[in-house]
Design brief:
The longest helix is centred in the N-terminal third of the chain and has 30 residues. With 341 residues, this protein is mainly α. Helix content is 72%, strand content 0%. Helix 4 packs parallel to helix 11 and helix 11 packs antiparallel against helix 12. The radius of gyration is 19 Å and the shape is globular.
């Protein structure tokens, strides 16, 4: 992946969005921007591309909102995800097989970082009898889904613990945006949907240019969603609005909500497509993109603070992953009781 060119494309997309945010909504901006950058594509094609990106972002926002409401009421993100998937219409055997395929994708993505952490990669058996509904009562299925949800959450923590995330953040800092303060205020106020659209647009242009490996529009938009949510969490630490532990919990929970959205979108795909999609969002590629965006969106005055926060966050994340500290897999009220980290 050509980081320098990726930075330039993302910078252009985000800067253009910042310049037009007051006179265009996200959908209008996206179509205009893609049309300008891809003049060879017809209006209908641009509308189709924009529609798929916005549809995916909308689904991810719905999952994020539902998870946040559950956490506010005292439920864990992991238990929310189990309930969310359990309520879907597929049979227990079908859900169990899908869980195994997604779990395989997560473990493969985690193993792509380095050998700092122990990671078990599980093959999914092709034996159809294993996925017979009679083998999967609700209790057994929920247990498997809970394990998968926990691993999804760990994947978010692993990203910010990785060296590639730190280095990409440092690299992203070197680029200049037209209005970093506007963007930072947007993140602080929670109005992040436009930035997710802008990052999606930039990633699509990068993919069309051959700068990042080919992938689907759904994966591009999902990566943008998870990236901006993580940037927002770390931004709160920089501003002193939350602790590192609270940020890691938010990042973990975002990974769980994102995973639930991916389940809904990709559950009918073949195993290789599921694994590839999970790897793109939760593996090295996703970490690199998140890091670059993290650096790009940081105001000049906060750059040194960002690097300090990232290093401390990484250290805490490693302790979580190595079980030196128990990551809190529970709701908001209990998180408040944590000691400051």
């Amino acid at each position: 992946m050509n980081i320098s060119k990726l930075k330039s494309i993302l910078r252009d997309a985000v800067s253009d969005y910042a310049e037009n945010a007051n006179n265009k909504d996200s959908a209008e901006w996206l179509q205009d921007y893609l049309g300008k950058k891809l003049p060879s594509k017809s209006v209908d094609v641009i509308h189709s591309i924009s529609g798929e990106i916005l549809e995916t972002l909308d689904l991810m926002e719905q999952k994020q909102s539902a998870m946040n409401i559950a956490v506010e009421s005292g439920q864990s993100a992991e238990n929310w995800m189990v309930a969310d998937i359990t309520e879907q219409s597929e049979s227990n055997g079908s859900k169990a097989r899908t869980a195994a395929e997604f779990f395989y994708g997560i473990s493969s993505a985690q193993a792509s970082y380095d050998d700092t952490f122990e990671t078990e990669i599980l093959e999914v058996s092709e034996t159809s009898e294993e996925w017979n509904d009679s083998n999967w009562n609700n209790y057994k299925l929920k247990d498997v889904l809970k394990s998968t949800a926990v691993e999804a959450g760990k994947s978010g923590i692993r990203e910010v613990a990785s060296e590639v995330f730190l280095k990409a953040s440092e690299t992203g800092i070197s680029e200049t945006l037209s209005d970093r303060e506007f963007i930072t205020d947007t993140i602080t106020k929670g109005a992040v949907s436009g930035l997710k659209t802008a990052i999606s647009a930039g990633l699509f242009i990068a993919e069309e240019s051959g700068i990042i490996p080919p992938t689907s529009l759904k994966i591009i938009a999902t990566t943008a969603h998870k990236t901006i949510e993580s940037v927002s969490a770390l931004g709160d630490v920089i501003k002193g609005k939350s602790t590192i532990t609270e940020a890691l919990v938010k990042i973990k929970n975002t990974a769980v909500a994102t995973f639930s959205g991916m389940w809904q979108q990709h559950k009918y795909e073949v195993q290789s497509e599921i694994i590839e999609g999970i790897g793109s969002v939760f593996g090295l590629k996703g970490a690199m993109i998140s890091g670059v965006v993290n650096g790009l969106l940081t105001p000049k005055k906060d750059e040194s603070r960002l690097l300090t926060v990232l290093k401390e966050t990484g250290k805490t994340a490693v302790k979580f992953l190595n079980k030196e500290i128990n990551i809190p897999f529970f709701g908001k009220n209990k998180i408040k009781a944590l000691s400051r980290k």
